[in-house]
Amino acid sequence: MSAVDAAGLGRGRAVGFVLPALVLIGVFLVFPALWTIYLGLTDYRLTGLAAANPQVVGLDNYTDALRDPRFLGSLWLTVGYVGGSAVLGQAVLGFALAWVLRTRTGRLRRLVEGVVLLSWILPSTVVGFLWFALLDRDDGTLNALLNTPGFAWLLDHPLLSIIVFNVWRGTAFSMMLYSAALENVPPSHLETARLAGASVFQQLRDVVLPLIRRHVLTNLLLISLWTFNDFTPFVLTGGGPEGRSEILPIYVYNVALRGGELGAGAAVSFLILLINLAFALVYLRLLRDRRRREAALTGGPPA
Fold it and tell me: For this UniProt entry, which residues form the secretion signal (predicted)?
């Protein structure tokens, strides 16, 4: 067998191995994405004449959504939800747990890690109903512990309730990622900084964070995207009361399924996709700039 034939056979085998994965990606990712884009350009509905014979309306669904005060309100609620629960909640609390547990061994560390991980691996719906029972106005566990019978947490503070719920549920991922990152910080660097009189804050700022900055960026990107597309708060509040916890995933559900406007819901879904892409592009830009600075300091070629 010649070298050309061998190379062709190798490429054929490679294609044979990759083809099933490409088919699955096409069926479950590419086709639904293209179908959603098409629906967003039509007036397709669940019922009525538009369900049997949808018409192409162009960008009307997008312009209507951008002019809709309800959509803009949901967008700002989502920004607050992501900022409060992912950026200020999960990232900070996850790092704090990882930092405190980095030098701990034995049962205490295993117990804390087990409890935190349990909240993350439980099904989201199960966790949602558990928190609903915790915050219930009539028979809620929290009111029983605080001796505040009848206090309606989910009605009076719906956004705060789902933020705290998501922090409790998602901190485990940040904790595990930061725990792995902190293992790459040389203990000698921290010891040198401590002997030089650096406070804990100065050690974190000058030694730890520069070494784990990539992990921080990766963690912020992932938890922000997950939180931005999270539908679980629907179990707690259903988007209410009066839309005060109607984040974008719940808004899409209400428009597309409850309202029957599949075309409008698909258009909003595509807008959400564009926002997610913007998050990813910002992350890639920050990561690229970081690599260029590191290459300039070490004298190596930029990545």
Answer: none
The CATH class of the 73-259 domain is: mainly alpha
Q: What span, in angstroms and rounded, lies between the C-alpha atoms of 282 and 288? A: 10
Furthest C-alpha separation in the chain:
83
Residue 43: Cβ-neighbour burial (10 angstroms; 0-12, 13-18, 19+): buried
Better pLDDT: 120 or 228: 228
Q: What is the pLDDT of residues 125-170, one digit of tens each?
A: 888 888 888 888 887 888 888 888 888 888 888 999 999 999 988 8
pLDDT digits (tens, 9 = 90+) for 213-271: 888 888 888 899 889 988 888 988 888 888 899 999 999 999 988 888 888 899 999 99
Q: Which two tokens stand for residue 273?
A: 């996709």
Non-local CB neighbours of 78 within 8 Å, separated by 6+ positions: 228, 247, 248
Distances (CA, A) of 210 to 58, 83, 101, 181, 213: 48, 23, 20, 11, 5
Q: How many of the other CB atoms lie within 10 Å of CB of 47?
A: 8
Distance, in Å, from the CA atom of 96 to the CA atom of 115, rounded to the nearest integer, reads 16
CB atoms within 10 A of CB 213: 15
CA distances from 235 to 152, 252, 269 (A): 16, 15, 20
pLDDT beyond 60 at 43? yes
Tracing tokens 């700002």 back to the chain, one arrives at 76
- CA 152 to each of CA 52, 135, 157, 189, 293: distance values in angstroms, whole numbers, following the listed order: 44, 8, 8, 50, 51
Q: How far is CA 15 from the centre of its chain?
A: 33
Q: Which residues have a Cβ under 8 Å from the Cβ of 262 and sit 6 or more positions away?
A: 39, 44, 45, 46, 256
Whole-angstrom distance, CA of residue 18 vs CA of residue 4: 21
Which amino acid is residue 236, in one-letter code?
L
Collapse the DSSP code of 213 into the 3-class scheme (helix H, G, I; strand E, B; otherwise coil) and give the result. Answer: helix
Residue 77 scores a pLDDT above 90? yes
